[in-house]
Amino acid sequence: MSQSIEQLLAGLHPLEREVLDVFRGSVSLEEQLSVPDKGIAAQTGLDESRLSMALGWLLAKEILVVEHEQTARFVSLTDLGRAYATHNYPEGRILQELRGGRPLLIQEVRTRLGLEQLEVSTAIGNLKQHGVIRIGHGGAIEAIGESWPYESIYKGLLQELSGATQPVAYAMLEPERQLFLEQHLEKDWKTRGVIKWSEKTTKVFTLAPLGRVLLERLPAETFAGEVSQLTPEMLKDGSWRGKRFRKFHIDLKPPRIAAGRVHPYRQFLDDVQAKLVSMGFQEMRGPLVESEFWNMDALFMPQFHPARDIHDVYFAKGLSPADDIDPALLERVAATHERGGTSGSTGWRYTFDRSRARQPILRSQGTAVSARTLANRPSVPGKYFSVTRCFRYDQVDATHAPDFFQIEGIVLDSTITFRTLLGLLKLFAVELARADRIKFLPAYFPFTEPSVELHVRHPKLGWMELGGAGLFRPEVTTPMGVTVPVIAWGLGLDRMAMVAMGLHDIRDLFSTDLDFLRTLRPPGSSAETGRGA
Predict the structure, then answer these.
(1) Which of 71, 293, 378, 502 keeps 20 to 30 A from 263, CA to CA?
(2) Any domain includes 89
(3) Which residues contact residue 525 at a Cβ distance below 8 angstroms, ignoring those fewer than 6 apart?
(4) Within this chain, do residues 442 and 376 fall inside the same structural domain, yes or no?
């Protein structure tokens, strides 16, 4: 035992000795000393990376143990939040304008105050909800009363957060502001991108029995002049003479080398693709930049549908109108929209704009790829799928992103029914998303009837919609020349991966934190695969 202790002492790194010296003078065989990691940093003067490295070594050698740890929440302002602190938040600017005695119309709030449309609608909604304003005739905004009880808290909270150079501990805020932030602002401000939350864990370290023995035998001297490496220059000029060289313990395990690996989410996508191919599905492909025709018109979505608004779809500037649309197919789809064509429907009864059909946009749904496949004489019976990247205007939060992956698919056969679709959706939820609880809810989509939404239970976030599905309407299949039933689905792969990989935030799928990614394993991978990262 004594030889092992001597070897450990000889192999201690100078950083480890510095950390152990923090415990000196207060440790005996009968007592333990607990030191928080921030206390160690203050006493040693080590930066975060070197301290973390030294603590990791001591924990691995069982010289230190973690007595307990505590996680604290911190809140800080985003760039948008700092702009609000400087120029006033939208609700405050609207009230300031009204108190100045100037009339204000809803349609001119954006231009007069320099706000985005979403900021305007959110601010007006908040003020109406709290009974501060009302909307009069002609869209005129009118103030009700002279004060708003939350106004001072809004301003004070913004100023406190903007004046801090570091994220502010939630526990350090005034109780009134804590309560207000938790009950009124946390979801609203986070969704609007005004604040961001973070967490920091403080650990308290205690000397293990082995650590107490080592510290008793560790000389109380400085090792600042100790040399860890003999260099050619030292041999040439003889400066090695009189130096004290650090001893090495060659029996210690070397540090683990973090090898490269495929991104965990990419592994998940590849696994989904492999499973569908093994089930006999053929893969479909389509462009990211689509025309409104394939993305919407061919799917019997009317050109006045709200999903075509600029707040839902990204329009592509500087690109020429699409020229890959068969004129005969365009006319059949136009006739279906206007009067139902040969589908047996009455259509939407409006004048179809053929020039708008060629408008280039970023693909907003994977169903556009299915539309292209139906128009290209698919096999009957046939099974097709596509992993598509889609783009929609959306506020980023734990379950939403402006770009996302969908698993899109269609099955064509004269014998398939709605029950066939439900069976496939259940299979995807269990095998791909690894969900243990699922449910189906009725839904409406312009291009399917009957329609259904697939929901799964996330362990932390609760019930989460994965996507929609249904049987394509005759108004979709008839212009394409397809005469058999077609079932179709479009499911959010990002959300499926969240459930399968145990993630609580969709943004974690695209994290750049290498330490986090090394511990993240796609479903079905072995523990050995995870350690190899």
Answers:
(1) 71
(2) yes
(3) 267
(4) yes
